[in-house]
Amino acid sequence: MKKRKPSRVLPNEIRPIVEFYPLKPVKRKVKWLILDPKLPRDGLIQAELKSAHGIYIFYNSQCRAIYLGKADQLTLWKELTNAFNRKREAQTLFKVLHPITGNAFKPAYKKKRGIRKRHVYLHEIASFMSAYEVGDALIRNLEALLMRAFPNELTNAKMETIEFKTKK
Fold first, then answer.
1. What gap in Å lies between CA 117 and CA 96, rounded to an integer?
2. Gap between the Cα atoms of 103 and 58, Å rounded
3. Domains, the chain, ranges and CATH?
4. What is the H or E stretch that residue 50 is in?
5. 85-108 burial, b for 16+ CB within 10 Å, e for fewer?
6. Taking a C-beta distance cutoff of 8 angstroms, is the pair 27, 58 a contact?
7. Cβ atoms of 52 and 133 closer than 8 Å
8. How many whole angstroms separate alpha carbon 138 and alpha carbon 8?
9. What are the respective helix, strand and coil percentages of the chain, to the nearest 5?
10. Burial profile 10-45: b = 16 or more Cβ within 10 angstroms, e = fewer
11. Is the pLDDT of residue 57 over 90?
12. What is the CA radius of gyration of the chain?
């Protein structure tokens, strides 16, 4: 039996912080927060995210991955919050504007209500999130790998490349 070469990746290079955590967005001034800092458990998670860099995934209500991102320059908390509030052309909904309660109602055959394409924010469509602390040298390649693992599922507009470092 051939002996296996030791791995060059350290066993603790990826550490789960939260997985499939349900989101209850909270509006603070002009931004939406993914967690409510007033809730004890959310406050503890927020503290972990503020001190870590890595990879995060947003999921829709059916637990399908809809957006994947990396936090290599900013902390996971900052990057998650920025992504959660960023308007993206890749994310669209088709919506009909219906009458508001209290206004006179006219049936659709009398007043046409066309279906309109609308760009949405993650805070409007994300229901769950996962976040992983990842070693700095691994973040970019792990994001690129995961993007390839979710083909045609993610709303990300940019495909990242896997970078190789060869020994001289």
1. 9
2. 37
3. 14-88+123-149 (3.40.1440)
4. helix 40-50
5. beeeeebeeeeeeeeeeeeeeeee
6. no
7. yes
8. 11
9. 20, 30, 50
10. eeebbeebbeebebebbeeeeebbbbbeeeeebeeb
11. yes
12. 20
Residue 16 banded pLDDT, cuts 50, 70, 90: very high
| Helix 76-85, helix 40-50: angle, nearest 10 | 110
Length of the chain: 168
Q: Contact 83/67 with Cβ under 8 angstroms?
A: yes
Distance CA 81, CA 56 (A): 11
Which residue's structure tokens are 């070469």? 5
User: Which residue in 91, 154, 161 sits closest to 120, CA to CA?
Assistant: 91
Entry pTM: 0.78
Structure tokens at 70: 């990396």
